[in-house]
Every structure is written in structure tokens, then in C-alpha cells.
Amino acid sequence: MGDASAITEKAEADANKDANSANANSLLDVDREAGELLANAGREDEAFALLAPKDKVVNDTYQYDGSATGSLALKDAVEVASAKRDVAEVNGKSVPYTASAGHFIAYDLKTKEPQASLFYTAYTRNGLPKEKRPVTFFWNGGPESASIWLHLGSWAPRRLKTGAPVIPEEYKTAQPQHFPLVPNVETLLDKSDLVFIDPPGASYSQAIAPHTNSDFWGVDQDPPVIRDFIRRYVNVNNRQLSPKYVYGESYGGIRTPIVANLMEDAGKSQFEPDKSGKDPVVLSGVILNSPVLAYDVTCSDYADEWKKPLSCAGLIPTYAMVADWHKVSKARPAGTSVESYLSTIRKFMVERFAPADAIYYKGVPNEDTEYFDSPEWSAFVETPYTDLVSKGYYDRQEGHVDARAECRASVIHGYHIYGGLSEELVRRPNGHSWQVGQARRGCAGSRRAL
């Protein structure tokens, strides 16, 4: 009798648990339906109170490995997210939103096998109707670069206040320990929900065994796992009907079009059916921010890339215009329009820079100096200064041209067009700017034209 009684009590307890769970789910369904009605009626604050997830803290103590061989056991790939309700000032109006951060597993579209656990940070206005509310997926360069730059430097509701391009004197010799987090008046939260994605090997994102992070560090290997993350995010958060945008910066100029193409190829069937029965929105648009579209036009080299021709025709005019905007260059004559000034720079790149490039690359690569050597080039750099070269252009020390001076010396009509700005923005504690390591080929490319 004792055993029978125990079994009966357990059955009753299970039944009560199931009933309580059913009641809870029923209440959630009621709240969801009411919230959706309020959202469609334009009553965002009331809808948000019902639809936004409650605040939740996640204490993730796992030590993620961002190395090439980093690999996560499937049991450690937990799809859980923190949540925090907040309010942002957008266009003079206070709007409620949820900040969330966590992981989703990217499952292979065809095999359904887990590939990687990707970390993301999202900002969502849960009180707006999902069918009308766009969602934009962001990533920076890479393949293994985190999305922190677009996140905390550009479009999130809050940003890090670095003060750039005006850098305090003390930060030019010692790296600051922190920056204040301030409201971002330029946030895109008024236009779209925002999801910032870190690819495998970046921040807390990691490949799932038997894969390793480096399995996804390639032009062909990287985009599918991003596409599969987006698919997972959309299905879990019921964003099938939302307009969808993909936004890439730097290397994102290569990744983003491929991701977009993969999404379109996968079509509507990649998403779970929406409860309304309506067809899902696959992709609404692509946004490229300072994209790399071809590596031979980046005016910078890595590893042995200095041995091949690299064009600076786009980079130098860009730096010139940035420097002009921030008023660190005096190259634009008074009374000259921005359009006319840019036209002058482009003309210079075609008529002066390109022919000099041709002379330079006729030489022989010197492994010791990582320069191209030739009598023609030596003769060219020894020619008298012209009106296009500032007197401080060649900083000769012990008979050679100092690399750092070369890097700062892109000049138009006798003025530095970008040197001051780039150095102020990215000076390292050792006093060198980022260009020093690239001076042989990168922004030092202008030395050959002038």
C-alpha cells in the first residue's frame, strides 16, 4: 500500500505541475495577444510592459578560447541571454527598449549539425509590431573581429565617449583605463532593432567541436555560419515577418554581400512558418560601412602583400576629405568648394600618383627593406621638389627617408592632407601611430607620387 500511495502522490504532484505550467503558458499567451493588440494600436509603452522580457542576469563563467584551435563542447554551448529593460532618448522622445546579450547556436542549414555558438548583443523595442519593425544585423571586419566598434562606437543606444579626434595629451603617452558610457544621439534604434554579432573566435563566440574557430576564418567558410545565426535568431524571436537588413563594415564589404546571397538562395524555407501563415521576409537590404571591396585597393599590406601592386587611389582622397572635415588640414584654398577640392585630389592621383606608382613597381622587391629598388625609382625620388611637395615631406635621417615621416606625408599643394588627424586618432602609447607598421606600403604610398 505504501508504494501505491507514493506513486499516487507523485502522479498528483506531476499533474499539478503540468496544470500550473499550462496556466502559466495560458497567461503568457493572453499577455502576448494583448501586447500585440496594443503594439498594433500604437500604444508602445503599454505593449512593451507586456511583451518585453523581464530583467535577467546571466553569470557565464565559461572561459572562451578565441584562438585558432578554440573549440567548444556542445554541452557547454548554452542558448541563454541576459535582459535589461531601459529607456532611450530618441529624437526628443523617451522610448522603452530591451538590451539583451547571449548566445545562439548556428546550425548548418543542410545537415542541421551545430557549427558554432555565436555571442550577440541586441537592442529591441518590444512594444512595436514585429511585422513593421525592421531588424538589422551588424558585424565589423574580420573574419575574427568583434562587432564592438559598430556597437559601442556607432549605433547602440549608448556609446563610449572617446573624444576622438581630439585626444587629451595624457592619453598620447598612456592608454586610458576606461571611457564613460553616454547616451548616443545618433543611435539607429529609431529606425530598427539592432543585433550585433561576433563571429567565431571573437569575444565570447566559439566553434563547436569537432569544429575549431579557424574552420570559419575564410571567405567561403565565414558567411554561412553568420547566415545560420541569423536564421536561428529570427526563428527563436519570431521575426519572420520583420524587414531584415545586414550591415557590414571593413571586411564586412566582402562578408555582407555573400551573407545576403546565401540568405536569398536559402529563401523563405530557411525560416520556421509564422503563426499568421504569412510568408517570411528573407532580406530587405544591405548596408556597407567603409567596406573593403577588393584587397588590392586598400593601400595597405599584410605579410607578403607588399610585393604586389596595391592602389592608394581611393584611400588618400578619403583621408584628405576626412582631414578637411575636421579642419586639421589647410590644403583646401580659401573659397574653394569641397567638390572642387576633391576633384583636384582625384586628378592628382590620376596624373601624378599613378605614373609614380608605375615607376616604383618596375623595380625589384628587396626582402631586407621591403621596398622595390630600381635606378629609375632612385632617380625619381631624388628629383627636385615641385609645388606639390611640402618642404617637410622628406624627413631625412642618416641618409634615408624616415618611415614615419613618409606615412604622414601625403600632401596636396604643399600641405599635409591627413597626417595630423590619423596620428591623433590612433597614436599608440609608444608614441607611434598605427601606420608605422604599414609605412613601407600603406599610407606611405604617397611618397612615391610626390
**What is the CATH top level name of the largest domain?**
Alpha Beta
Fraction of helical residues: 25-40%
CATH architecture of the largest domain: 3-Layer(aba) Sandwich
Mean pLDDT score, rounded? Answer: 80
The biggest sheet, with number of strands, parallel, antiparallel or mixed sense and barrel status, is: 8 strands, mixed
What's the alpha carbon Rg, rounded to whole Å?
28 Å
Q: So how many helices?
A: 10
Number of strands: 16
Proportion of residues in β-strands: 15-25%
Number of domains: 3
Q: Say what the CATH topology of the largest domain is.
A: Rossmann fold
* End-to-end distance: 100 Å
The helix-strand sequence is HHEEEEHEEEEHEHEHHEEHEEHEEH
Contiguous low-pLDDT stretches (5 residues minimum) are: 385-450
Instruction: Kindly name the structural category.
Output: alpha+beta
Globally, the shape reads: globular
Assign the CATH superfamily of the largest domain.
Alpha/Beta hydrolase fold, catalytic domain
Task: Give an overview of the whole structure.
- The protein folds into three domains: about 1-50; about 55-290, Rossmann fold (3-Layer(aba) Sandwich), CATH 3.40.50.1820; about 295-450, no CATH class.
- The longest helix has about 40 residues, at about 1-40.
- The model is unreliable at about 385-450 (pLDDT under 50).
- A hairpin with a 2-residue loop joins strand 1 and strand 2 (about 95-105).
- It has about 450 residues and is an alpha+beta fold.
- The chain is about 30% helix and about 20% strand.
- It is built from ten helices and 16 strands.
- Helix 1 packs antiparallel against helix 2, helix 4 packs across helix 5 and helix 6 packs antiparallel against helix 7.
- The N and C termini lie far apart (about 100 Å).
